[in-house]
Amino acid sequence: MRFDVLTLFPDFFTSPLSSGLMAKALAKNIAEVHLVNPRDFTADKHHRVDDEPYGGGVGMVMKPEPIFAAVESVPILPRREVILLTPQGETMQQQLFRDLAGGYDQLVLICGHYEGVDERVLELVTREVSLGDFVLTAGEIPALALINGVVRLLPGTVGKAESVALDSFEDGLLDYPHYTRPADFRGLKVPDVLLSGNHAEIDRWRRVQQIERTRQRRPDLLNET
């Protein structure tokens, strides 16, 4: 899958994309990330990408010309989504990551700044996405979260496919508790059922734990299933 990220701060992505599973996925060509700076598409000597809002008000607004030119500079793959990262978009959910991972060859991500982008940029956009009901300084943080959430679902990123299938939210429930050695740490013991070797009982215990943990921490998820 190809990601084209329109960002005023390309260096923001350097470390996260050079670490862990993301770095491995990029090295294996499971995904590729291209960083495009709208400043490179400005015509004035100061490379301005923002201006005062019409009608007055505080803050600055990202200009449409550099964003249009930046989007138009990237290749167009057959199955493409152009996403604006904005607090006004749909909230990121696991189902969104699944849809993007399975249905597209290219995601173009526009990282907003300042008070937002000129409304005319929406003519380019096919989807608006938000990290949550809060405001951040820039769109790079949600863009990185989206890249991470989608790439980890692509075949070959995670070593064992079943580990992805058992993640929180994959079946509408939170994950069950996990334990490893030692069996007794400072008096905190691993549940006996996990030491029993009875896989049917272990599966039942884990399912009960998923339901109970979801009921306690995210009862809204149970209402949706």
Mind explaining what this structure looks like?
The strands form three sheets. The protein has a five-stranded parallel sheet with strand order 2-1-6-5-7. Strands 3-4 form a two-stranded antiparallel ribbon. A two-stranded antiparallel sheet has the order 8-9. It is built from eight helices and nine strands. The chain is α/β, with parallel strands linked by helices. The chain has helices spanning 20-27, 64-73, 94-103, 140-151, 161-165, 192-195, 199-217, 219-224, and strands at 2-6, 32-36, 50-51, 61-62, 80-91, 106-111, 127-130, 184-185, 188-189. The mean pLDDT is 94. Helix 1 links the parallel strand 1 and strand 2 (32-36).
Question: Topology of this structure?
Answer:
Elements: E1 2-6, H1 20-27, E2 32-36, E3 50-51, E4 61-62, H2 64-73, E5 80-91, H3 94-103, E6 106-111, E7 127-130, H4 140-151, H5 161-165, E8 184-185, E9 188-189, H6 192-195, H7 199-217, H8 219-224
Parallel strand pairs: 1-2, 1-6, 5-6, 5-7
Antiparallel strand pairs: 3-4, 8-9
Helix pairs in contact: 3-4
Question: What are its keywords?
Answer:
alpha/beta, 9 strands, elongated, 225 residues, 2 domains, Trp Operon Repressor, Chain A, two-stranded antiparallel sheet, 5-stranded parallel sheet, Alpha/beta knot
How many strands? 9
Number of domains: 2
CATH class of the largest domain: Alpha Beta
Terminal-residue CA separation: 31 Å
Largest sheet: 5 strands, parallel
What structural class results from the helix and strand content? alpha/beta
The name of the CATH superfamily of the largest domain reads: SPOUT methyltransferase, trefoil knot domain
Enumerate how many helices there are, as a single number. 8
Helix and strand succession?
A: EHEEEHEHEEHHEEHHH
Helical content stands at 25-40%
User: Any guess at the CATH architecture of the largest domain?
Assistant: 3-Layer(aba) Sandwich
Order of strands across the widest beta sheet? Answer: 2-1-6-5-7
Radius of gyration: 22 Å
Based on Cα principal axes, name the global outline: elongated
What is the CATH topology descriptor of the largest domain? Alpha/beta knot
